Amino acid sequence: MATVELRNLRKTYLHEEIIKGISLAITDREFVVFVGPSGCGKSTLLRMIAGLEDISAGDLLIDGQRVNDTDPARRGVAMVFQSYALYPHMNVYRNMEFSLRLAGMPEAERRRRIGDVARILQLDPYLDHRPGQLSGGQRQRVAIGRAIVRNPRVFLFDEPLSNLDAALRGQMRVELASLHRRLGATTIYVTHDQVEAMTMADRIVVLNRGVVEQIGTPLELYHRPRNLFVARFMGSPAMNLLPARIHALTPDGMAQVQAGAVSVSIPTRHGGPEAGTAGTLGIRPEHILIDPQGAITGMVTISERLGAITLLHVRLTDGQMIVVQTGGDNTDRADTPIRLTLGEEHCHLFDADGMALAREADHPLLSDL
Amino acid sequence: MARTRTRLRQGVVTILGWAIALWMFFPILWMFLTGFKNEPDAISTPPHLFFSPTLSSYRDVFAREDYWHFATNSVVISVLATVVALLVSIPAAYAMAFLPGPRTRMTLLWMLSTRMLPPVGVLVPIYLLARATGLLDSRTGLIVIYMLTNLPITVWMLYTFFREVPVPILEAGRMDGATRWQEVTQVLMPLALPGIASTGLLSLILCWNETFWSLNLTSSIAAPLTTFIASFSSPEGLFFAKLSAASTLAVAPIMVFGWASQKQLVRGLTFGAVK
Amino acid sequence: MDKAAIRAPLTASPAGGGARSRGLQGFLLQSPAIMLLLVWSVVPLLMTLWYSLRNYNLVDPTRQGFAGISNYWYLLTDPDFLTSLENTAILVGGVLAISVGLGTLLAVLYNEEFAGRGIARILVISPFFIMPTVAALLWKNLMLHPIYGVYSAMMRAVGLTPIDWLSRYPLATLVMIVAWEWLPFAVLILLTAIQSLDTEQKEAARMDGAGMVAQFINITLPHLSRAITVVIMIETIFLLTVFAEISVTTAGGPGVASTNLAFLIYSRALLQFDVGGASAGGVVAIVVANIVAAFLLRAVARNLET
């Protein structure tokens, strides 16, 4: 049972503020993912929560108690490091035992706990192996096991899967998610991989240069990006973004938008943009349709066939490049002309400051929010 | 064609490698052999390659000087100076590697610069100080001085080794509840053990072979093997066999030790300069 | 922040503390080493400075008192002093040239695979373990003695007249003896450095058509630059203060032909009992060492940064 609350947390390092006032309330059992490009401060923020970095200003509360100046080990948090940081001179059992031994737990109790954890993580056969004798995936499990045995209130993960190959990463993702469901511990997870963020998080915190760009469920971030940064960051292949100008607004809330040779009318909610202002038109690759009658024309430059889907890179007649996602059975070849239609209700519109304008379209799961 | 060239090259490398190795080692080998000759054999011209080995020179050396007294001094002084130097430099190197401040780099270079002060420049005051404090010709005096002269080198070496230890492992220890003391003794030191070992090895060798201070500050009570061998230098310089036997006795312990720990030593000597 | 620090438990692991406490801890952990070295480097230095300004001869206790700069004047105008400086430079420069130059070549050689390489390597590095006194006695008597030395016997065997190396070419012979002691050290370090050379780099150079020599100059040598800096730094520390070898072999002679600065001061202090003069020499030696150190440390700092 643990909540974590960040109240206007700041971190200054050599006169430079790298965490610029972050507030966030994490509820019990929640799985929160910090995501962002490298250098956005996500790892620093995690290390501040862990107690490995000093907090320059603001308050950090775990279960309502201010822990700014509490030792890492007394915060009731456990951390899994990117490099695993296993003790190479101790075997697997000793690695997991270290914290329990330091805490003065009786031997029998220690053995029982480590036995339980080893069983959950299928580490029993390796207890007397040293980390150097284990594979990457096994080391990862030991690192997780070392965190679990302490029975922490909060789990912290710092890019734990980035050292694994693609197949193992996918497998560990599922294992971590099911482990979280089983243990039900509050979890904070840092990654730069938005697939991990999308698949595992209850809520995602998108960070950029020390500030929060947006907090929300994966679907919220995907379908209602608050600004251009989030729109660009979430989703792969990335959202197509075209510089645009809003020509006119009809009384029923339709915005007439011109982006180069592309002209669309986008349904907007009240309080929409003013006519004549500049902005950005955004559309995800899967919302562009190949349509022989389509008004938008271009040439296919490259087609990436991924099997299940095909990504077409299209140069529009006005020279802009966009990516179109279509089915695996697509037959368009490079250097052939193509006609496209935009799913207008799926278009995103951003104002000159990069802030998203409210839109009608949504994911069915989001409608009740 | 290419094959014969490779084989030719291989032959040249082998011959050259062995020729140079033997040339470098020859004086030591010759010294070792001469120690088993009698005096006439030792100075015969041309030198005898074959001779009937005798232990008479060794007997003479043992009869003249109490070898074990000097050897014990060498061991005690080298080991204690090394241990104390490590005890002082491990915390310093830890702080420099993991709690660096803006002045850390300067401090390190300054430490190294103190090692460059020529001992002869401060011989007079040190001699007078040692005499005033009763440390002249005492083991303690040499231990203190050896510890001080080696301190910059041990700090520097340990610093470079500690910097190779992945910080997250120490942080994991901190997360697991280790105090600073436990972090150093239970996580850092086992991890950096090879580095600490090679630092200690180098310090031992330097102490064992240090000549300037031992010759000038000791005469009998605390005299190590460097003084022992110096006593054979001038008056009996021409008793080659005895001289060789004594020299062999003086260098044998550290040489055998050096051979045995060669791999470990090599790691340490690189001062982190080799990656 | 301050209030929080007061509320923080006293038993807290220091690691969690604020930046200030980390700095304090770092200082406390370093302070024994720093204090010791500070005392060790400052106190004798000040004493040396003090004596260097006084008349102080152990044989003639009547002549006491302030001497001003006369000790320095006496020393700096002494032709022996200049000779000793020159000899010091030759000794340090000569040994460095031999050990770095030959050391690099030997490191390349002993990096090659050949039968018995492990034993050959151990034989090559063995002189490093020999104490200076023994090395000097060994060369002076067993090897280079004009009558009984092995080298003399070899020269006679090929019909040459043996040379009394130490009196004919005292300084060059000393350079040779000291180089024999320090070459192994250079080989040790440079060999380790070469072993860490990425083979892919060499293979890429071979694909680019680089021959053996081109590979050595363009790949191996740049790779060794850090290690060479370390060799130069460490050896200079010891070479500036070469003492036992001179004392045992030539005692600085003939005349002052093989007297370096260290030996000159030594002979003043302990052979002529002139504490004042010796101290002035000590100060000069320290100044010289500092000039060299300034250059070396700059190079080291630059080289070890990256």
What does this protein structure show overall?
The complex is a heterotrimer of chains A (369), B (275) and C (306). With 369 residues, chain A is of the alpha+beta class. Chain A is built from 8 helices and 20 strands. In chain A, the strands form 4 sheets. In chain A, strands 6-7-8-3-9-10 form a 6-stranded mixed β-sheet, with helices on both faces. A 5-stranded antiparallel β-sheet of chain A has the order 13-12-11-14-20. In chain A, strands 15-19-16-17-18 form a 5-stranded antiparallel β-sheet, with no helix packed on it. The radius of gyration of chain A is 24 Å and the shape is elongated. Chain B is mainly alpha-helical and 275 residues long. Chain B has 14 helices and no strands. In chain B, helix 4 runs parallel beside helix 7, helix 4 packs across helix 10 (193-209) and helix 7 (139-163) runs antiparallel to helix 10. The mean pLDDT of chain B is 83. Chain C is mainly alpha-helical and 306 residues long. The model of chain C is unreliable at 1-17 (pLDDT under 50). Chain C starts with a helix and ends with a helix. In chain C, strands 1-2 form a two-stranded antiparallel ribbon. Chains in contact: A-B, A-C, B-C. At the B-C interface, helix 1, helix 4, helix 5, helix 6 and helix 7 of B face helix 2, helix 4, helix 5, helix 6 and helix 7 of C.
Protein topology:
The complex is a heterotrimer of chains A (369), B (275) and C (306).
Chain A: E1 4-13, E2 16-26, E3 31-35, H1 42-50, E4 57-62, E5 65-66, E6 77-80, H2 92-102, H3 107-120, H4 136-149, E7 154-158, H5 166-183, E8 186-191, H6 194-200, E9 203-208, E10 211-216, H7 218-223, H8 228-233, E11 240-249, E12 254-259, E13 262-267, E14 278-283, E15 288-290, E16 296-305, E17 309-316, E18 321-327, E19 337-342, E20 348-350
Parallel strand pairs in A: 3-8, 3-9, 6-7, 7-8
Antiparallel strand pairs in A: 1-2, 1-4, 4-5, 9-10, 11-12, 11-14, 12-13, 14-20, 15-19, 16-17, 16-19, 17-18
Chain B: H1 2-34, H2 39-42, H3 56-64, H4 67-98, H5 104-115, H6 123-132, H7 139-163, H8 167-175, H9 180-191, H10 193-209, H11 212-217, H12 225-230, H13 240-260, H14 262-269
Chain C: H1 2-7, H2 19-52, E1 54-55, E2 65-66, H3 70-76, H4 79-111, H5 117-125, H6 132-143, H7 150-157, H8 165-168, H9 170-195, H10 199-207, H11 212-239, H12 244-249, H13 261-271, H14 275-305
